[in-house]
Every structure is written in structure tokens, then in C-alpha cells.
Amino acid sequence: MSIQVFGIQVSRGVAIGRAVLVASSRVDVAHYYIGADQVASEIERLRLARNAVAEELQALKADMPPEAPHELAALLDVHLMLLHDEMVITATKNWVRDRHYNAEWALSAQLEVLARQFDEMEDAYLRERKADVEQVVERLLRELSRLAAEAAPGGAAGNGASVVAAAPAARDFAGEDPLVLVAADVAPADMLQFKRSVFTGFITDVGGRTSHTAIVARSMDIPAVVGAREASRLIRQDDWVVIDGDAGVVVVNPSPIVLEEYRFRQRQSELERARLSRLRHTPAVTLDGQAVELLANIELPGDAAAALEAGAVGVGLFRTEFLFMNRGGALPGEDEQFEAYRAAVAAMQGMPVTIRTVDVGADKPLDRAGDGRHDHGLNPALGLRAIRWSLAEPGMFRQQLRAMLRAAVFGPVRILVPMVAHVSEMVAIHEALARARQQLDDGGKRHGPVTLGAMIEVPAAAVMIERFLRQFDFVSVGTNDLIQYTLAIDRADESVSHLYDPWHPAVLALLRQVIAASVAHGKPVSVCGEMAGDAAFTEVLLAFGLRSFSMHPSCVAEIKQRVLRADTRQLEALGRLALDAESPASAVRAALAGAREK
Fold it and tell me: The domain at 34-167 falls in which architecture?
């Protein structure tokens, strides 16, 4: 039977494929594809984990004191039986053989199947046995994590964090159906693993339009719907699913007529993308001759190729925090970071690369075992994150700055610091950069010139923009967090996502203030948040005076088309309308529609 699930559209287009469910677990699980030559070794890992867990349970049973309740021994017997049950182990091996999932992913996929079967049982006693299966699977997952940690360089992952024992393998199975990912949530680090895979779309139960799961999905340029609440419960493994990224709707097991309609829309979307791609090498200049800089946001050095392919004239935001994730809490060293930054700089062939210092915290937690300062806290968006985290780890911060300075030898580098709000932070940033330069000089290591900028994403920073412009070479507005903090909205919480409003008059007023002050002082200003890549805001931002936009590579062509059709002389009234209207979004849309009809 066909059903519809509604969520928040975060990445446009249509995706059609078979559902792949990623089960939630109290244990972190690495998800990646393995090559055909790794199937036997993954099954061997499963066997070793099962044997180790069986020995652990046998030892627990043997050491049980005489006064222990007999129900406890019976429970251990049930868990031992499940360890050898075909529905657990044999079926998991089939996921490895048939889908080429790694062992952890295969186990979590099979747990999802079994959990549904238990939920549908009429007998209450049997339904409750689902907990036993979950406990057994989690024991197996912990053991697999331990085995992976032992096999990894350095020996230990720390705190049970997932370790990717092998690089994700590209799938090349002829005739297989396309796949869409369905999960309660996907951590940003896992999103990077999936970025290298063949999923044609994403669906998550939680999240908002500017959660990092949504941001990475957009960077992959594939349809996605988040905040779909019950999606992972209503959709079953291998169901046919349509993701309507334009409407934020998921259609499960669509009828043949509905499926054909969406296939037609897919073809139309592909034709439109091909048409826009022809603008790739056209300079972004308005009708009245205003040059506009269109930059790309990237997560990894390899993304630079997509930025060039899209026609970006530089990188406006390199999110370095993704280099720090999926490492079991271990931090990348200076040389490792240097190689990553150098690769991105070299790939951009002389175009500028803006590298942001690490921005962990909030919806991008970094697992640091045993360090209470880095716990997520009750409100991580307001806690130890971004520059606060860097200044709390001065050695790490200087290490990152040294790597960036060294990479500047190979091309123009701009260093961007996130979430600056205090004068004391500005002073500490300049001191750390000077100290990093001195350390490189003392060590005889080459380094290049850099420009230093701050992100304007805290209302306090927007209010005191004049002070920022005296302290920094440039500023970049992170609209995602600026909106979140201005409106007191958790941007990753779907329950308040309807209140997350980029068109809010207070947000627009702060944007206008920052852009106008920067232009008046002759300091470069860009917008690197999601508003930069949203065509609905292009003319308004141009009217405010913005001439530098940084966005996902997939958005560059559409924004360039809007720029080429704009005349900034005629947009001044639009800027005033956006600031004064009761409903800015509606007023701007009506004004633009009227202008096109003339």
C-alpha cells in the first residue's frame, strides 16, 4: 500500500530507489561499502566477534554466584542462543555478501528487520524479546569496534567510537536498483562516508533545513527530506521510495502512475541542470556591469574539483572540522592537516581558498574520551564550540594555524575564524597567529602570507561590526547560525523548524548592517551560509550591496543565472521593500514577478 510521509525539504529534485534503513543504536556504527575481495574478511570479523561475545557470556554465567536469580542464567542462555540464530548471524552474513555492507552496518540492518518483526507479534511476551536481540547486537557491535580499533594504526579508538577499518568502496554491481538512505538521524561524520557512496537520496526522522546532515546532503547535490518524524518506522528495508525534495514529501511504494510522473520530473530536472551547466565559464556580471564573486563551500580537499567544475572562482568556506571526525577522538596532526590544506589550495589553481578554523560542537560533536570540558552539554549550540573550543585547546589551535600558514606557500589562503563575539577573542586570535608564525620561523619551515577574517554569526558580532572591521581583513556572514542565535531557534530541531525564518526583519536588518558597514570601510564581505545559495535571496543580497557569495558547488549555476539577469540600479527599492514589508518573502516575490512581466 502506498503511503506519504511529510518532512522538511532541504535539497531539491526527485530521487527514486529502494530503501536502505540504518538502525539507531547506543553504539556508534561505521557504515561503508566493502569490495568483493573483502567479503570473506568481513564475515571472519563477524565470526570472531560472535565467538568473543559467546565466551564473554559463558564466563558471566560461570561466575554467577549461587544466590543469583535463576532468571538471570536463563537470560544469558537466551542471549547465547540468539548468537547462533540464523535470523541474526546468517542473515547478517547475507547483507555482507549481497549488499557489500561492512559487518557493523550489516548487523544494524538486520537488527532493523528483526525489530519490525518483533513489533508486529501479537504475543506481548514475544514482543518484549526484541530487547534481547538489541542487547545481543549491541554486544556484537562493541566487539567489532574493539577488533577494528586493534587493527587500526595506533591500536585503540577510544571510548567505543566507530572506526572505519577500510576505505569506503565504490559499488559497481550491474543491474542493481538505486538506493535511498533512511535513518532516524545521520551524524555529519557518517554523511561524509555516504558522500562517497551511491545513495540517490536521504530521509531522516529528525533535523532542520540547516542541520549539518542537510548541508552535506545539499553539497552532494542529491534530493533529501529531513524532520520526517516516523519515516524510519514506516518505511521498510527494500521498499520502493520516491523523495520529492521540492515539496518535502516521501512517497512509499508509489503506484505505477505516480512513479511514472516522478520519473518524468527527474528527466526534466536533468535537462534543466544541463542547460544551466552551459553558464559554467560565463563571468558573473550583472546587467549594469557589477562583477559578483561566486565561491564554493567544501568539506574535504577532494571537493575542490566539484568547485572548479561548477565554475566557482575560489573557495569561500573550507569546513576543516570534517578532517577531525570519524577518528575515535584522535586529532589530526599538523602535517596531516597541512597536506589536506595544500591539496585544496593546489587544486584551486591560484584561486583563493578560505579555510575556516575547526568548528566543532553543537550538531558537529567531537568525541574526546575522558575530557569533561568537551561533553555535549544541555545546550551545545551555546557551549564550548568553534573559537571557544580552539582557545580552550591552544596547542591544537596553533597547530592548525601553522598548517594553514604552510599551505599558503602554494596559493592564496584566507583564514576564517568562526563564532567570534568578544574583543578578548580577537586579541587571542591575533596572538595565536603571531605565535604560530614565530614557531614556523624557529623551526625553519616555509610559510606564506594570509589574510585573517571573522565569521559574523552571533548577533553581538553584527551589532559591533565596526570593531570587527578594525581588527580583521575581511568578514563572512554565516547566516545559518546568525538566524539561529537571533531568533533563539535550534536549527537542528524539527519541532521548532517552522520558526527558523531567514526572512525575519531582524535577520535582514543585521545582514544589511554588516554588508553596508563593510562596503563603507572598503573591507571584503561575503555570505557563506545557506542564504547565499538560495536563489530566492539573490536579488535582495545584491540590493544590500553584497558582491561575494559562497555556496555549495551545486548552487553556483542557478545563482549565476540570477546574477546575469539582475540590474543592481533597479534593485535599491527591492532592498528597502525587504526591510519594511510586513511579509518580506511575499513582497519580494511579488515585486520580482512584476518586474519580469514588464
Answer: Orthogonal Bundle (1.10)
Rounding to the nearest 10 degrees, give the CA dihedral for residues 549, 555, 561, 563: -10
The helix (run of H) or strand (run of E) holding residue 203 is strand 199-204
**pLDDT at residue 529 tops 70:** yes
- What residue spans define the domains of the chain? 1-27+170-277, 34-167, 281-597
- The structure's pTM equals 0.72
3-class state of residue 563 by DSSP: helix
pLDDT at 372: 44
Phi, psi at residue 213, to the nearest 5°?
A: -60, -45
Order the strands of the 199-204 sheet from edge to edge.
Answer: 3-6, 249-252, 240-244, 14-22, 179-183, 199-204, 224-226, 8-11
Catalytic residue chosen out of the listed positions 79, 528, 552, 555:
528
CB atoms closer than 10 angstroms to residue 237: 16
Q: Tell me which of 31, 100, 212, 447 is the catalytic residue.
A: 212
Please, are residues 243 and 27 in contact by the beta-carbon 8 Å criterion? no
212 a catalytic residue: yes
User: Residue 57: which residues within 8 A CB-CB, separation 6 or more?
Assistant: 76, 79, 80, 83
> Mean pLDDT over residues 441-468, rounded?
97
CATH number of 281-597: 3.20.20.60
What angle, 0 to 180 degrees and rounded to 10, lies between the N-to-C axes of helices 505-520 and 479-487? 130
Which residues, in sequence order, are bridge partners of residue 477? 456, 527
Most confident of 4-13, 26-35, 109-118, 422-431: 422-431
Q: Which helix (H) or strand (E) holds 241?
A: strand 240-244
Could you report the per-residue pLDDT of 213-251, keeping only the tens digit for each? 677 677 677 889 988 888 988 898 889 999 998 899 999
| DSSP element (H, E) containing 452 | strand 450-456
Catalytic (active site) residue 528:
yes
Cα–Cα distance, 535 to 561 (Å, whole number): 9
* Greatest alpha-carbon span in the chain: 90
Position 88 pLDDT exceeds 60: yes
Question: Cα(109)–Cα(119) distance, rounded to whole angstroms?
Answer: 16
Q: Any alpha helices (H) in 319-393, and if so which ranges?
A: 334-347, 386-392
* CATH fold for the domain made of 1-27+170-277: Glucose Oxidase; domain 1 (3.50.30)
Contact between 157 and 145 under an 8 Å Cβ cutoff? The reply is yes
Distance CA 532, CA 465 (A): 20
Condensed to tens digits (0 to 9), the pLDDT of residues 11-24 reads 888 999 999 887 65
Residue 301 pLDDT > 50, yes or no? yes
Mean pLDDT of 329-338: 89
Q: Look over the chain and give the mean of its residue pLDDT values, rounded to a whole number.
A: 85
Q: Cα separation of 105 and 341, whole Å?
A: 31
Q: How many CB atoms lie within 10 A of CB 263?
A: 13
Closest among 59, 30, 64, 24 to 45, alpha carbons compared: 30
The runs of H, that is alpha helices, within 294-422 are: 304-310, 334-347, 386-392, 394-407
